[in-house]
Amino acid sequence: MRTVIIEDEKPASRKLERMLAEFPDIELVAKIESVEEGIFWFSENEHPQLIFSDIVLGDGLSFDIFEKVPTKGFIIYTTAFDQYTLKAFKLNSIDYLLKPILDEDLGAAIEKFKSFIPSDNSVNSHEIKQLIKKDKTTLSRILVKIGYNLKIVQTHEVSCFYSENKIVYLQTQERAFPSDFTLDELEDILDDRKFFRVNRQFIINSDYIKNIHTSPNYKVELEFQPKEEITVSRDRVKDFKDWLVS
User: Fold this and answer.
1) Looking at CB atoms within 10 Å, which of 9, 40, 118, 225 has the fewest?
2) Which residues get modified to 4-aspartylphosphate (predicted)?
3) The whole model's pTM is what?
4) Tens digits of per-residue pLDDT, 34-81?
5) Start-end ranges of CATH 3.40.50.2300 in the chain?
6) Angle 10-20/103-115 helices, nearest 10 degrees?
């Protein structure tokens, strides 16, 4: 199996190369260290069957490579951050390994890849979709950019996510940060015991609700910190009340 590593940290790249050397049927054909290098390599070379890719690289996210140069190869993402699970699975990912990578996790990921590649190298897309659905995880932390710096925000620190001018922000007690998510994506990966989509613009964290006001016309309004007031859309009121007591 022709394989490529995308990793900008040399020690991590060398460690993964040593781990892959234990699998005799894997042939490492390239090691890539940046988005720019990746776009060039995948534009000029035959794509491998399997790609091991870190997500956060020095000049961007590895997703940028495959959005510019779509690949039919399968990707096993290796990263210290769990916030990109949903987007990873939309871009040919069959597994998602959190660093530090354990030998048994790597072996299981490779066996999973082999199980989805029949002898004729065709792909069973239905089974891949079922795997994605089964492996869905909830988001526990988010990586945000502040200028040229990166900051980790724990989801329990987020009072709400909201859409404004086609950008989705996460609000903390400190400030609002832009994110790379859509509200629809966040609905799929946030812990639904804590977070609820109250309308088209807001997903709220129950821990930050101060008061709930109702009126005879079935309108429900939330006193919310740090946002002053958020209205639950009328078609979501029943689900919202059920969620509060679930």
Assistant:
1) 118
2) 54
3) 0.53
4) 999 999 999 999 999 999 999 888 888 888 898 899 888 888 988 776
5) 2-116
6) 60
